[in-house]
Amino acid sequence: MTLDPIGWLSRWIPEKAQYLFVQAFLLTVISAFLWRKFDVDPRFRTVIWYEEVTLFITFLVVVATRRMPVVRATGWINLALPCFSAWLPFIPAGGLDLLLRSVLPPERCPAAFCPESRLVLDQPWGGAAVQILLCAGTAGLWISLLSLRRSFSVSVEVRSLVQGGIYRWLRHPMYLFEIVSTAGFTLLRLSPVSVAALVLFTAAMIVRANAEERLLLAHVPEYAAYRSRTWALLPIWVK
To answer: Is the confidence at residue 224, as pLDDT, over 90?
Structure first.
């Protein structure tokens, strides 16, 4: 059976109402993360802090104004995989530890899954490498969102074909820069758990990009021509 919760529920709840509920949920989650970002001592607000705040504000605007999909996401790869993989970067970023500390009393909190590691930071190049990856990844995500605007999707679905901005050269820039950001957090909290999360996340992004390609080729006639003149994630992966 194909995974299609919106299709199943549409017998009782209009599809548009379901999308409005999902949109409200996403806005609530993003607002919560944005609120947490402001709960930081102003003395520790670095360049990456300002980048992340700008990114979350852009996410809020994009999600609040995005259009309804032309082809909705169905199936485990198109729907379940993106929802699962979206949380993987929070493991090396320390988000899982933060979540547990926010819902559990201190005496019941487990040891940190991904504590900060000095293994990379103690190297002469370590701090710079982490900052470059985090800043580049966050800036790239922001640029990608500005290009996508109302066509932004969490799951694999079709809204409209975006060919401007950074999408003039790359078909999946958001996936690329999410991987870059996650790599930065992995270096900051280097451990077997954070490395495993990065590997799983990268594999999920590649699978997701291929699923998106298949869906767009099937439903957007001009996508084949666009695909022939652009890179997918990197110049070394053309098709």
So the answer is: yes
Q: What is the pLDDT of residue 238?
A: 45
- Residue 13: give its domain's CATH number: 1.20.120.1630
Task: Establish if 234 belongs to a structural domain.
Answer: no
Domain extent for 57: 5-228
Model pLDDT, residue 235: 54
Residue 78 and residue 72: Cα distance in Å, rounded?
9
How far is residue 46's CA from residue 50's CA, in Å, rounded to a whole number? 7
Measured at the CA of 132, the angle between CA 54 and CA 29, to 5 degrees, comes to: 35
pLDDT in tens, 54-107: 888 999 999 999 988 988 888 888 988 888 888 888 777 666 666 666 556 666
Q: CB-based burial of residue 134 (10 Å sphere; 0-12 exposed, 13-18 middle, 19+ buried)?
A: buried
Q: Dihedral, CA atoms, 22, 24, 27, 33, nearest 10 degrees?
A: -90
Domains identified in the chain, total number:
1
Instruction: Give the torsion through C-alpha atoms of 96, 100, 106, 111, to 10 deg.
Output: -40
H/E element, 196:
helix 192-219
In a domain, 233, yes or no: no
41, part of any domain? yes
Is residue 57 within 8 Å of residue 144, measured between CB atoms? no
Q: What is the pLDDT of residue 12?
A: 93
pTM of the model: 0.86
Please state, in angstroms and as integers, the Cα–Cα distance from residue 104 to each residue in 50, 90, 110, following that order: 29, 18, 9
